[in-house]
Design a protein that fits this description.
Layout (H helix, E strand, L loop, with lengths): L6 H10 L13 E7 L2 E2 L4 E10 L11 E5 L5 E4 L15 E8 L3 E11 L2 E12 L16
């Protein structure tokens, strides 16, 4: 079967003609996680952790997520919001924070997971180092005097 010249413009026209509207994929935000302080030298050490959704579109998928914090020392925390139904144009909560007290020296990996309907949306992690030299009365982190 051989197509002549008139078929080529018709084929190009058919490919370029608008058909059903294509769905535009929304851009997924990135989850950043920061800890303050990242290195602590006293016990107990209170650490503030801030997670932030960066970039992406304001989509229902990331609206009102549940939060799961894993502090790396065996402790876990969870947070669920009670939010009104999503409507187009609503702004997402993009900043989430929590504090945790570390009572033992060590290297810890703090993780946060954003969830919606038992599905993981995003996760991030940050390292925290607790040196635990103690307060002014605790000299256990120093070598003995000679």
């Amino acid at each position: 079967m051989r197509f002549g010249y008139p078929v080529v413009p018709f084929l190009l026209l058919a490919l370029a003609a608008p058909g059903q509207p294509s769905e535009t994929k929304s851009k997924k935000p990135r989850l950043d996680l920061r800890a303050t302080p990242r290195v602590a030298t006293t016990l107990p050490s209170q650490v503030l952790v801030v997670a932030q959704l960066v970039g992406g579109d304001e989509t229902e998928e990331f609206y009102c997520p549940g939060l799961e914090w894993d502090w790396g020392d065996g402790a876990r925390s969870a947070y669920e919001s009670d939010c009104p139904p999503f409507e187009p144009g609503m702004e997402l909560a993009r900043r989430f924070s929590a504090t945790h007290a570390y009572r033992q020296p060590g290297e810890y990996e703090v993780r946060i997971t954003l969830r919606r309907a038992e599905r993981s949306l995003a996760a991030a992690r940050v390292a925290v180092s607790i040196r635990g030299l103690g307060g002014s009365d605790d000299w256990s982190g120093f070598p003995p005097a000679q």
